[in-house]
Amino acid sequence: MNEAVRTNFDIKDYLRLEMMPHFMCPGCGHGIALRCLLWAVHELGVDKNRLAVVSGIGCSGRVGAYIDANTFHTTHGRPLAFATGLKLARPDLTVVVITGDGDCLAIGGNHLIHACRRNLDITCLMLNNEVYGMTGGQVSPTTAIDRLTTTTPHGNAEPTFDACRLADAAGASFVGREVTRQAPALKSVIKAGLAHEGFAFIEVLSDCTEIYGRKNDLGESPEMILAQKSDMRPEAFGNAADEPFRPNRLRAGVLVQRDRPEYGRVYRERAAAERAKAKAKG
Amino acid sequence: MRAEPKGEQAAAATRALNVMIVGVGGQGVLMISKALALIGQKQGLQVKQSEVHGMAKRGGAVFSHIRFGVEVWSPTIARGEADALIALEWAEGLRWIDYLRPETGVFIADTRRIVPPFACRSRRHGAPMAYARETPAEALEKVGEGFALDATAIATTLGEPRAANTVLLGVLSTSLDMPAADWLAVLDALTPPKSRAINLEAFRAGRAWAEAARDDPTLRFDAGFVPRARPADAPDMSVALVINAAWCKGCDICVKLCPERCLVLDAEQVAFLKAPHACTGCRVCEWLCPDFAIEVRTAVREAAGA
């Protein structure tokens, strides 16, 4: 990956202009997350032809379709599985997974924990809008308690998943979280995740204004985006064993960064050793 | 007061002496007020002191009224009745200048400027600030007797910029008819051991400066003082906002989050730059537009005629 910082970022260089404007609702935070991803890619100087974006199903799954790079729209919950195969076969590519809270934690929960455990060099962007937006606003694993959705008309009674603690406990070597309100900070976290060798899990706190915000009386998109900042409080990122569910106060930034062997490298070394052994046997 | 006109001398003997000390939170307004009150008491006078220091810790304004005399009733000084005004910060001094007695009031100010954030009216690089533009020479023309010195610089050469307040107290000591030994004795008793030596030294430095300035009026202000102007190398930036109406979905984020409030939604619910002159090119709208409909273009403006 090229470390040189290129200036004059123009997002239009990275978009499929014939598909714009995108299909997201007015004020949807996913657009801001997409800008930050492309901004980070631009600053790292990653070639568009060497960038592979894998996305799943849902509002977040559609985000990848607007990127003028190698994009892969896969099945529900499985973008990490597809990305694992892609990265093992083509280690020269920069592989980014864009997934949502339902896609990543509910349908694809198992793929997430194993991707974290395996530590393959993939950057996973989980756009968390706390709801299944595309299918009409059903409750998701990250819906906050007492929130109204189409499947919880009397308020959500289920505890809320803290995806960052889950990823930390499953062994991800990089865990980050940021809100879309802080676009330059979000860009920096994504940039750090892309530069990290190993599995990088980044939770992007996004807003669903049309379906979730309106139902819960959270205001229009400007009010929701302004509220994001007041919800973030500096608080120690606790051990996943202390409190497995999500507290109301969250810490943002790079939460975990640890040194672990990258799976792709380990796999290729072992394969080479096996090949050498077989050759010696003749 | 030394410079009292003769006709008022009889009245001045019975009326109280009024000193105002103004500054910004953290500069030591209250410390020198206390010293001054103790010195007054040492002269066998009644002293009344009142102060306002509400949001002082956040860089807010602090002022203190000190009145001494044979008999003092009210603790506050009326407008136009202060015999001396000590300003630890330049703009604060100008703000209270009308409290000085016209003709006879003594104005003693540090020319050091502490610019509050709200004086920056525009985020443009090198934009003019809403901070006092008077030079010391202009300010001293408005008062009977004035001293404008860079007390912070004097205190810094002594090794402690925070002793600027005591430097100004030293300047004041030459205007009041009280023996220098009393001032030093009070400072010695009031200051903690750690800062005692520096405070006494700062007081002497201020007194020495004032004595020299009394003999030579050209020394009473720093003639070379220039209010901070726009830096010569500040580029003149032109900002242009390009709004792609076809992509805008009218979500209102840019309108509500623009720090300068220069965007509105037009009749078609599309973002529109209502006040182009107010736009500073901060890029918040560009960053937060989920539809990539706003692009901020900045360029260094060419000199006129070039």
TrEMBL record, chain A:
- GO biological process, alphabetically ordered: cellular respiration; small molecule metabolic process
Instruction: Cite the Pfam families for this sequence.
Output: TPP_enzyme_C
InterPro entries according to UniProt = 2-oxoacid:Fd_oxidoreductase, THDP-binding, TPP_enzyme_TPP-bd
Q: Which organism is it from?
A: Roseiarcus fermentans
- This protein is called 2-oxoglutarate ferredoxin oxidoreductase beta subunit
Q: Where is the signal peptide?
A: none
* All copies of domain Thiamine pyrophosphate enzyme TPP-binding, residue ranges: 58-204
Q: What are the entry keywords?
A: Oxidoreductase
- Keyword Oxidoreductase applies: yes
What would be an example GO MF term here? oxidoreductase activity, acting on the aldehyde or oxo group of donors, iron-sulfur protein as acceptor
* Keyword field contains Oxidoreductase: yes
**Database matches in PANTHER family:** 2-OXOGLUTARATE OXIDOREDUCTASE SUBUNIT KORB-RELATED (PTHR48084), 2-OXOGLUTARATE SYNTHASE SUBUNIT KORB (PTHR48084:SF1)
Automatic annotation (TrEMBL), chain B:
Q: Does the keyword Metal-binding apply?
A: yes
Q: Which UniProt keywords apply?
A: Iron, Iron-sulfur, Metal-binding, Oxidoreductase, Pyruvate
Is the keyword Metal-binding assigned to this protein? yes
- Stretches assigned to the 4Fe-4S ferredoxin-type domain: 239-268, 269-299
User: Which InterPro entries does the entry link to?
Assistant: 4Fe4S_Fe-S-bd, 4Fe4S_Fe_S_CS, IorB_Oxidoreductase, Pyrv/ketoisovalerate_OxRed_cat, Pyrv_flavodox_OxRed_cen
The cross-references to SUPFAM superfamilies, in alphabetical order and at most eight, read:
Pyruvate-ferredoxin oxidoreductase, PFOR, domain III
Q: Which GO terms describe its molecular function?
A: iron-sulfur cluster binding; metal ion binding; oxidoreductase activity, acting on the aldehyde or oxo group of donors
Q: What is this protein called?
A: Indolepyruvate ferredoxin oxidoreductase beta subunit
Q: To which species is this protein native?
A: Roseiarcus fermentans
